[in-house]
């Protein structure tokens, strides 16, 4: 296929006549999708091939789900997905929970600029948590003028409308006279939840489902409440409707997403607890596995433990962030539980669901952390014996209360503690791995094995990885697998 040579020639759009923009959502966004589709058609004609996109996602499951929403809209308006960042529209969905996440984005923007210089069709978009920080947007405006579109976490539902504005600002005759102009739309907060927009799932058989947005906890180290806004729960009927649709579409596993799922439903007109929501979701035929993330220990109720105990579908895995084992540090962190409460909770959960896998998040080097405080963390790690743990070096986030606390810990001290913790966590994980060897358990087959084409890879209810001989047609199915052997952190098995 021959392709026109367009390098250096700036594309221009014939601007659509917008006369009846709907006032309500999601109709308004579907209207803009139609306009964007027409713009894409014009640009593709000029380019001589379809325009491509690439979305890079940083950070958590929440961002991964948001990216599926971005992809849903991009595909709906006619962009074609491209594996590499040499695409006509590259979007970074950013994370800002730790400082190094920000630095990574700046580094990669320079590299994207190189591609853009060679491709006059190329647009660069930035969204996600990092864009909710005014200093970041200022820096991009100053030093990264080539970025075409910036938006935040609260108005992602407006993506179609923003694409239309960005295309017009970048490729209209007006823009041609003024050089590329940035389209920026950041909201400080929102109470809005827009339903029924397109989503393109990464996996056919499993899906994230947002049940709530934002966080009200203000842990003193954490930037999330500032960039994701106040807590708001989706209506249960909307959640159930989405889950039913997913089930009808072949999804067998769902992951309920929220910054603190245990406080689900508090702000609804008709309040509902997370435990009650789970019981409703359990009733949806076709859904075989239910996961959720993240649980705050302070809000984990006895009712929830009871529901987990009696459920046939809730997976035997609980991610329960500890952050620190020292009650003194937990108080400074504003976590609103102490070491004793956390350990009691773990006992209760294990008594109710004996074979549950427990995982956690731990921060090392919070301001004021003494050797004794750190030993308390090590003590909890040894007592709980986590199946795995994410360990983080404390990162100072401007605007959070912890950033201005006295007694920030020197880097070398943190590093030494971090290494000790990591070693302990890994030793325990290794000792615990393999506990299920010899048993036959259901495995959801997720993908072909990357190294060995004769194998497929899946997960147990407790989230452990299993490899077994199999073929691609098994993907998305739950099969009974005999766990023959444990190698490090995964099992080798055979389907029965
Ligand atoms: N520094 C280090 N780790 C952090 N986390 C959140 N904020 C910070 C920070 N400022 C960690 C917490 C949280 C996980 C998602 O990221 O452990 O549970
Ligand atoms: Fe951050 Fe705490 Fe909210 Fe989790 S619960 S997002 S750590 S403020």
TrEMBL record:
- TRAM domain mapped to chain residues: 434-496
SUPFAM superfamilies assigned to the protein according to its UniProt record, in alphabetical order: Radical SAM enzymes
Question: Which residues take part in binding [4Fe-4S] cluster 2?
Answer: 215, 219, 222
- Output a single Gene Ontology CC term carried by this record: cytosol
* Domain named Radical SAM core: residues: 201-431
Assigned keywords, A-Z: 4Fe-4S, Cytoplasm, Iron, Iron-sulfur, Metal-binding, S-adenosyl-L-methionine, Transferase, tRNA processing
Reactions the enzyme catalyzes: N(6)-dimethylallyladenosine(37) in tRNA + (sulfur carrier)-SH + AH2 + 2 S-adenosyl-L-methionine = 2-methylsulfanyl-N(6)-dimethylallyladenosine(37) in tRNA + (sulfur carrier)-H + 5'-deoxyadenosine + L-methionine + A + S-adenosyl-L-homocysteine + 2 H(+)
Against Pfam families, the record matches this protein to: Radical_SAM, TRAM, UPF0004
**Which residues participate in [4Fe-4S] cluster 1 binding?**
60, 95, 129
Which note does the record give on the cofactor?
Binds 2 [4Fe-4S] clusters. One cluster is coordinated with 3 cysteines and an exchangeable S-adenosyl-L-methionine.
Coiled-coil regions listed in the entry: none
Q: Which PROSITE patterns match?
A: MTTASE_N (PS51449), MTTASE_RADICAL (PS01278), RADICAL_SAM (PS51918), TRAM (PS50926)
Named from the GO MF annotations, one term is:
tRNA-2-methylthio-N(6)-dimethylallyladenosine(37) synthase activity
Cofactors named for this entry: [4Fe-4S] cluster
Q: What family is this protein classified in?
A: Belongs to the methylthiotransferase family. MiaB subfamily.
* NCBIfam families reported for this sequence: miaB-methiolase, MiaB/RimO family radical SAM methylthiotransferase
> What does the record give as the function of this protein?
Catalyzes the methylthiolation of N6-(dimethylallyl)adenosine (i(6)A), leading to the formation of 2-methylthio-N6-(dimethylallyl)adenosine (ms(2)i(6)A) at position 37 in tRNAs that read codons beginning with uridine.
Describe its assembly: Monomer.
The entry's protein name is: tRNA-2-methylthio-N(6)-dimethylallyladenosine synthase
Species whose genome carries this gene: Roseburia intestinalis L1-82
